[in-house]
Model the fold of this input.
Amino acid sequence: MKHYKINKDWNAQPNVPLPKVKVFGNAVQLEFVLNHYLYKKFKQGQKGLLKFKDCYMYRLGAVNDHGFYLGQFRYGPDEMPWGEFYELTESDWKENFPQDRVVVDETLEDRKDLKHYLFFFRDETFECIAREFKFEYS
Done:
């Protein structure tokens, strides 16, 4: 498994990111509070949106930052840093995606252009298998 950090000039608020998932057909939207401490272009409480198109499945759940550093996640601190948004390549998601998954559109399972996205928040982790994503903020 290899990873590529996507969020170069933005990130979630480190203390209370409040991630929320909404599903629209086979699109998934992840909303969270942006980090205005580190990225001064954002105001306190400003929201970020990740919109995933052609989403096969996603999850928002365990593990938090403490569990990650205790080795409770299938990828560890030696493989990637905590607290960032990644695209994983050469991922084993078909064999090793967590059981608390939500299948959005099972007809997409065998598409060859699906990508594995992973975002570590303070108290939970978001993963998504989708064709593409777009980042927006309001």
Residues 2-137 form one domain.
